[in-house]
């Protein structure tokens, strides 16, 4: 009887916590970060078939992703992942996460030049300060040069964390000696030319998150 009573006392708090988590999970709503339609031009488009959403931790963390692409001789893509949880993820953790994603998940297909990578911070049109890291790499299958950017920030207004990964091919087998950076510039440019002096209003710069 005593043992049963002790077990009961342990189970009741656990059930209470589980019930509380289930209730709180309904309080986590997410607005997916996106690029306004008027910014998407010059061959870029959103691949709607690759939109995705999901839940983690009993619904206490929700996420959604979208992918923007441009095809042709110099293809490029930009993925935007939005995370929403009860507490914002630390921005240093976000930065480490994006660096890990690039170095661990892309290394099977792309040889990264670690000596040329560089990182920094900049302000976006949404008034948030982001952290970014940039790599040069070589597609091992196609033997073409690529540029990669990972960029993250927190949106305190909407309680969102945003993670972006942009990849652009800058060489083509028809003309390997010449680098084509127009699509790369479309991803990374901003009015102050913070990244490699590419001035303009690029895709990441214009992401709407609140």
Key attributes of the depicted protein:
single chain, 210 residues, alpha+beta, Protein Transport Mog1p, Chain A, 8-stranded antiparallel sheet, 3 helices, disordered N terminus
List the helices and strands and how they pair.
Layout lengths: L1 H24 L19 E2 L5 E5 L4 E10 L5 E10 L5 H15 L4 E14 L5 E11 L4 E12 L4 E10 L12 H7 L22
Antiparallel strand pairs: 1-3, 2-3, 3-4, 4-8, 5-6, 6-7, 7-8
Can you describe what's shown?
- By secondary structure, the chain is an alpha+beta fold.
- It has one domain (29-188): Protein Transport Mog1p, Chain A (3-Layer(aba) Sandwich), CATH 3.40.1000.
- It is 22% helix and 35% strand.
- The protein contains three helices and eight strands, in the order αββββαββββα.
- It has helices spanning 2-25, 91-105, 182-188, and strands at 45-46, 52-56, 61-70, 76-85, 110-123, 129-139, 144-155, 160-169.
- Strands 1, 2, 3, 4, 5, 6, 7 and 8 form an eight-stranded antiparallel beta sheet that branches.
- The chain starts with a helix and ends in a 22-residue tail after the last helix.
- The model is unreliable at 2-27 (pLDDT under 50).
Short description:
Helices cover 22% and strands 35% of the residues. It has 210 residues and is of the alpha+beta class.
Topology as a string of helices (H) and strands (E): HEEEEHEEEEH
Structural class: alpha+beta
Number of strands: 8
- What percentage of residues falls in helices of 4 or more residues? 10-25%
Overall pLDDT level: 85
Number of structural units classed as domains: 1
Q: Give the low-pLDDT segments.
A: 2-27
- From the 3D coordinates, which CATH architecture would you assign? 3-Layer(aba) Sandwich
What is the molecular shape?
A: globular
Number of helices: 3
Intertermini distance: 56 Å
Q: Over all CA atoms, what is the radius of gyration? A: 21 Å
CATH class: Alpha Beta
Q: Strand portion, in percent?
A: 35-45%
CATH topology: Protein Transport Mog1p, Chain A
